[in-house]
Amino acid sequence: MTIFQAQAKDVDKIIPLYLGYRRFYQVEVNEAQARAFILQRLQLNESTIFYADIDNQPVGFTQLYPLYCSLEMKRIWLLYDLFVDETARKHGIAQALINRAEQLAKETDSVFIMLSTATDNMQAQALYEKNGFVRDNDFFVYNKFMK
Length: 147
Known about the structure:
The chain is of the alpha+beta class. The chain has a single domain, classed as Gcn5-related N-acetyltransferase (GNAT) (Aminopeptidase), CATH 3.40.630. 35% of the residues lie in helices and 27% in strands. The protein is built from four helices and five strands; from the N terminus they run E-H-H-E-E-E-H-E-H. It has helices at residues 11-24, 31-43, 93-107, 122-130, and strands at 2-5, 48-54, 57-69, 74-84, 112-115. It has a five-stranded mixed β-sheet, sandwiched between helices. Strand 2 (48-54) and strand 3 (57-69) form a beta hairpin. Helix 1 crosses helix 2. The longest helix is centred in the C-terminal third of the chain and has 15 residues, at 93-107.
């Protein structure tokens, strides 16, 4: 397995994984819109995407967005997407992608990586906790949907 940092030229390698991720969360799959979204993030350097490749076949990806912590006055990373193709699970791919995300955080002198996951996604929760992520019990998260 090899982990690559995606460039705009890699968008077609990532799209099947991104669409699988959207299906997993039962979100509408619109391939043209998804391709444009990922391509724009990469072209504008608005996110960092790593993907795992086995025998020239992309099998998983993670997407991180840069943010800043005003209290620490340092960068933080929002690990928003993490997905491994169903056929490639249980082979350490998600772990390798998390390791690469942690490496990025260290390389950019970041104070932490934050993420959220569905309350019923017990496998993801176990993986994150195994990697030292701590569930926040001190703060509530609020969202205001603009639609």
